[in-house]
Amino acid sequence: MANASGFFSPTVPSLRRRYQPCIGFYRSGFCSTELISKRVFCSSATEGAEKHASGASPSESRVPRLVSKGCKLVGCGSAVPKLQVSNDDLAKIVETSDEWISVRTGIHNRRVLTGKDSLTALAVEAAKKALQMAQVDPDDVDLVLLCTSTPEDLFGSAPQIQKALGCKRNPLAYDITAACSGFVLGLVSAACHIRGGGFHNVLVIGADALSRYVDWTDRGTCILFGDAAGAVLVQACDSEEDGIFGFDLHSDGEGQRHLNASIKDNEMDHVLGSNGSVSDFPPRRSSYSCIQMNGKEVFRFAVRAVPQSIEYALEKAGLSGSSIDWLLLHQANRRIIDAVATRLEVPPERVISNLANYGNTSAASIPLALDEAVRSGKVQSGHTIAAAGFGAGLTWGSAIIRWG
Ligand code: ACO
């Protein structure tokens, strides 16, 4: 059980006077006083979801951190599989109806990877579009963060994306596993790498194929999920242009029992010892169970924890709910999105949602919705967005960001 929250932005006027010269940190790990430009404050502490949701502020435990750069979001892209599965299609394989799914979730369609499709290829397509929009050459990318819980290689798929993009300068590439909170965690990680690690162009990709872990006979879960990839290019910039204003991150392993896809032993691979008993060595080959979810508990957790997390992030950014242009939540359920917007007093016309077309695409849902909103002209350069992810772990968190 833990949380971390902070603000970095020198662009929030009320925070500017706090900056003062300090030590900068480089990717190599060496310290220098030459690139010193500002000081910001972050916080971290340990608290449970219940306690945090009941009002304990993380700001009490705030401790100083040192940074030297700003970072901004300069490009985005997305990709979805070709196969579309409608509610009516699902009603042919489980006992459900278009009406039940639409009313309870707001979902009408989802995209699903077929046998031949690759999630890595989808992530590469999204990343290429983000680089194109940002007008950044793959060779200039120095970090690839793949936020996914469904990599095609147990050891991580990010290096495969790095290879497919043709990044000749061999950027660092690794995976981040945090289910539906993955993209927000990736965004904050990118900011930390830029501010404290000397990285310049960081590709944050959210990509998931939960369809591969869904029990397609379980009507309680199979109606919810879809597959997709979305990407954002986060770039180092002058501290005055900084576009990641504040964040708030949490996890609570207590809640794992409500939502998981845990490891299971493969019954067929049990090894018999010489006396006929099941031997402990060599270990059995493992696989993962399908997604197990207590929907009601996850629903309750989301509507309780997410608005509070956004409020904390806004507080760290020195902003109020009325100053955000867009609310962009993980696309899990229309009723969750509506409840959070109501609690934060954000009117429906300032809520971004494409849930109806894609369902819950886990780590991809925020960058996918952002990409559509940017390309349709809804989100414009300079707009402030409150983004929040929540899901398995349990994990949840928010980031207050500026587009462009
Ligand atoms: N079609 C028809 N009936 C259904 C279906 C279905 N697809 N699914 C469940 N039902 C039935 C149930 O059997 C139950 O029937 P009963 O009353 O006869 O027992 C009834 O509908 C109500 O079921 P509930 O599960 O109580 O329905 P609820 O209103 O809670 O909605 C839902 C279920 C949509 C899953 C909701 O709980 C939800 O969205 N929860 C949040 C999930 C979420 O946000 N996950 C995000 C994280 S995902 C991740 O991190 C990987």
UniProtKB/TrEMBL annotation:
**Protein name (record):** beta-ketoacyl-[acyl-carrier-protein] synthase III
Query: Its catalytic activity?
Result: malonyl-[ACP] + acetyl-CoA + H(+) = 3-oxobutanoyl-[ACP] + CO2 + CoA
According to its UniProt record, the EC number is 2.3.1.180
Listed A to Z, the keywords are: Fatty acid biosynthesis, Fatty acid metabolism, Lipid biosynthesis, Lipid metabolism, Transferase
Ranges for domain Beta-ketoacyl-[acyl-carrier-protein] synthase III C-terminal come to: 314-403
Q: Which SUPFAM superfamilies match?
A: Thiolase-like
**What is the originating organism of this protein?**
Liquidambar formosana (Formosan gum)
Please describe what this protein does: Catalyzes the condensation reaction of fatty acid synthesis by the addition to an acyl acceptor of two carbons from malonyl-ACP. KAS III catalyzes the first condensation reaction which initiates fatty acid synthesis and may therefore play a role in governing the total rate of fatty acid production. Possesses both acetoacetyl-ACP synthase and acetyl transacylase activities.
Which cellular components does GO assign to this protein?
chloroplast
Family note = Belongs to the thiolase-like superfamily. FabH family.
Question: So, what pathway does this thing act in?
Answer: Lipid metabolism; fatty acid biosynthesis
Report domain Beta-ketoacyl-[acyl-carrier-protein] synthase III N-terminal positions.
Answer: 174-253
Example GO molecular function term? 3-oxoacyl-[acyl-carrier-protein] synthase activity
**Could you provide one GO biological process annotation from this protein's UniProt record?**
fatty acid biosynthetic process
